């Protein structure tokens, strides 16, 4: 018998193999027919990203389970400047314009199989040049960049009920008024509210500024100033608290409320200088140790330095307030080196402060009456005050303010914000407990670019709409929550 032709055998085997492989191919999804594996789910690394205009995003990658997608698409289209890679599903790019929260449905396909994932994108405005970083979901804008002939150091500032700002220029001795939408350029009025002759250098100049609780009626503004002595009047260098009445954006009727408070030697440091009203309408004044640590432990009759003081300013000159630890004594608490920032909790009335250590021991304190926070004296006296946080790395805390959640939501109620000079950061503390002294979390809320020593945050406060205002040596900025 003639042997089979080898070529015919090979063709027959190939045909059989193809017939056997066809269902296998279908089962593996190569043809997308019945029995092909489906894409069971698609997820993104970040399901609800927040991006900023002009800042390239970190690519947002997708993960699919089941079959491997061969094509990706998105509806509606991503915000301008962002792209979806049709082969991989990765979202990348640089946002070009702000965009409110929008849900985009990304579809991954493999043959007839599909799965979707929702990506909710929000794009905030570009940050001002002074900012290095800001928490997601918030925008920042420039409110005041004075541009004065002599660079102004902006320290404490206050926002009036009608939207004006009053703020200090530390070295010039000027209190300035900013009216949004009025005046030359940015709304900075050319005429200062007041101009004072102040001591220069170190922690000198204008340091404290606060509005009276009844400012809307009285127009009273309180200023703490390091003032030079007058040989003719036989007065020495000293710290004074002065009161002015706002008359058409000019301070009138200068009144010395508190006089002869201790001040550091010429060019010296540790003058403190915060002023703040409590919920009872009494005025707190913080004083540093004026470079003599023992002052912080000295009796009030010997030195008021290194202490927080509390006055009744309804009497001129001011007298110690009712409710102080000792009658007829302005001392509230002692043992502090240089407390430059105070904050009163809006409902409990508790007083909080930040103190600066010499080379460590920067503190966030709960400043209860009659207590001692341990600075000064050899050996150091027993600590009776409550240090909420003791920072061993120098941060130089400068300011505190409470947020009540207005405009920002319940998650921000009873949040404490702290500005720190050396690391140019605004910290956010979520607080709890009966006195709101328990720290549930501490996070970095904003960071400033450290450029030419101008972007150190110095003060912070909240506006009626919940916006957070921050001053630096070169400007005032407003942080708002993105809708």
Task: Outline the structure in words.
The protein has 483 residues and is mostly beta strands. Helices cover 5% and strands 42% of the residues. It folds into two domains: 86 residues, Sandwich (Immunoglobulin-like), CATH 2.60.40.10; 351 residues, TolB, C-terminal domain (Neuraminidase). It is elongated and about 100 Å long.
Quick structural summary:
This protein has 483 residues and is mainly beta. It has 2 helices and 34 strands.
Short descriptors:
single chain, mainly beta, Neuraminidase, 2 domains, five-stranded antiparallel β-sheet, disordered N terminus
Topology of this structure?
Layout: H1 6-27, E1 39-44, E2 50-52, E3 62-66, E4 71-75, E5 82-84, E6 91-93, E7 99-110, E8 113-124, E9 131-134, E10 138-144, E11 154-159, E12 165-169, E13 174-178, E14 194-195, E15 206-211, H2 215-218, E16 220-227, E17 238-247, E18 250-261, E19 275-277, E20 283-286, E21 307-312, E22 319-320, E23 331-334, E24 339-344, E25 351-355, E26 362-366, E27 386-391, E28 397-404, E29 413-420, E30 425-432, E31 438-448, E32 459-462, E33 468-471, E34 476-481
Parallel strand pairs: 2-8
Antiparallel strand pairs: 1-3, 4-7, 5-6, 7-8, 9-31, 10-34, 11-12, 12-13, 13-14, 15-16, 16-17, 17-18, 19-20, 20-21, 21-22, 21-23, 24-25, 25-26, 26-27, 28-29, 29-30, 30-31, 32-33, 33-34
């Amino acid at each position: 018998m003639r042997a089979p032709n080898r070529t015919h055998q090979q063709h027959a085997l190939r045909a059989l193999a193809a017939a056997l492989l066809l269902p296998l191919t279908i089962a593996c999804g190569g043809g997308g027919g019945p029995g092909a594996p489906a894409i069971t789910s698609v997820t993104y690394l970040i399901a609800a990203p927040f991006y900023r205009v002009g800042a390239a995003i970190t690519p947002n990658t997708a993960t699919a389970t089941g079959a491997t997608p061969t094509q990706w698409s998105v509806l509606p289209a991503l915000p301008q400047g962002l792209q979806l890679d049709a082969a991989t599903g990765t979202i990348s790019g640089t946002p070009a314009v702000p965009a409110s929260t929008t849900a985009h449905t990304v579809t991954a396909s493999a043959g007839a199989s599909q799965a979707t994932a929702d990506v909710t994108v929000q794009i905030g405005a570009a940050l001002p040049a002074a900012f290095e970083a800001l928490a997601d979901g918030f925008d920042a804008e420039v409110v005041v960049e004075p541009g004065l002939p002599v660079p102004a150091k902006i320290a404490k500032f206050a926002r009036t009920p009608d939207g004006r700002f009053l703020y200090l220029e530390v070295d010039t001795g000027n209190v300035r008024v900013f009216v949004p939408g009025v005046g030359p350029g940015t709304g900075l009025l050319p005429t200062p509210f007041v101009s004072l002759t102040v001591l220069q250098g170190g922690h000198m100049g204008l340091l404290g500024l606060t509005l009276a609780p009844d400012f809307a009626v009285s127009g009273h503004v309180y200023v703490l100033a390091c003032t030079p002595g007058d040989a003719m009047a036989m007065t020495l260098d000293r710290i004074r608290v002065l009161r002015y009445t706002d008359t058409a954006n000019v301070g009138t009727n200068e009144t010395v409320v508190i006089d002869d408070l201790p001040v550091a030697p010429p060019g010296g440091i540790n003058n403190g200088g915060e002023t703040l009203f409590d919920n009872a309408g009494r005025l707190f004044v913080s004083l540093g140790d004026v470079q003599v640590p023992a002052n912080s432990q000295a009796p009030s009759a010997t030195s008021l330095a290194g202490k927080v003081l509390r006055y009744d300013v309804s009497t001129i000159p001011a007298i110690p307030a009712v409710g102080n630890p000792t009658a007829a004594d302005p001392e509230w608490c002692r043992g502090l080196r240089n407390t430059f920032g105070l904050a009163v909790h809006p409902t409990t009335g508790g007083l909080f402060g930040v103190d600066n250590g010499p080379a460590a021991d920067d503190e966030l304190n709960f400043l209860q009456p009659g207590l001692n926070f341990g600075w000064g004296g050899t050996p150091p006296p027993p600590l009776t005050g409550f240090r909420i946080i003791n920072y061993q790395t120098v941060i130089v805390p400068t300011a505190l303010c409470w947020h009540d959640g207005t405009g920002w939501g319940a998650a921000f109620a009873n949040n404490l914000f702290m500005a720190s000079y050396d690391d140019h950061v605004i910290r956010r503390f979520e607080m709890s407990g009966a006195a709101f002294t328990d720290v549930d979390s501490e996070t970095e809320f904003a960071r400033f670019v450290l450029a030419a020593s101008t972007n150190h945050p110095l003060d912070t406060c909240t506006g009626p709409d919940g916006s957070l205002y921050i001053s630096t040596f070169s400007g005032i900025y407003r942080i708002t929550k993105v809708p």
